Amino acid sequence: MSSESDVTLPSIAFLGTGSMARAVLSGLLVPGVTVEGGIRTTNRSAEKATELADLPGVTALATETDPDANLRAVADAGIVVVAVKPAMVPDLLREIAPALAPGTLVLSVAAGVTVATFESLLPENVSVIRTMPNTPAVVGRAVTGISAGTRSSDADLALATALFETVGDVLVVPESQLDALSTISGSGPAYVFFLIEQLEAAAVAKGFTAEEAATMVRGTFRGASELLAASEGVDPAELRRRVTSPKGTTERAIAVLADAGLEETFTRATDAALARAKELAAGS
Description:
The chain is an alpha/beta fold.
């Protein structure tokens, strides 16, 4: 990270240290990011806490050995990241509410738990912002959607944006769009991996070994993504046209894919994901 993008954040408490929380945590440990007052984490397992305790600037606590771990973690924290499983959120919020300092910013990464739920269980002098990162956060390539709460300020939103930009790109959207965002960027990596699976299977069916297929397909996906990233101002349709010679082999293949109704298929797939997100939010 260059000096132009150096970021300073207040003390942070992570409640729950699953894969997503760890990915975000890793973004805070790179050069150029300063967390004043340090980072505290909590989880149930003492064994996991021991692993995290080796990270620089991290104090790891376990509820298994310290029943007050969550309260100790949030005391005087400027930012509290709630990263436990959604079903655990209400009880956790009730537990920590009395220990939160006025002005604390609470960030949710718990899928499906609304801002309204958070705000109803936390003091009025605490701000809430709901976030939805995706799994490429592990390699610093996340796309994170963030949505303001009714009590959060522009400064709170800027702080949340700065935190999640340490692991990738950030989109600020109304909470009403957050579930739709999850069907694109949240579930999106799975769609890409599924396409890679199918293309590798097609390569194997044409006589290549699994290793050869993996080299071809994964290298092609990575190369195409990096070419798109490097082609500023050029949209994917134009890049596709540059690969597709008139009356050539690629044109014939693209015609088959177009005839298969891929646009409609992706619309139906993301609509199905959105319907399931609404079911989960309703508790079904």
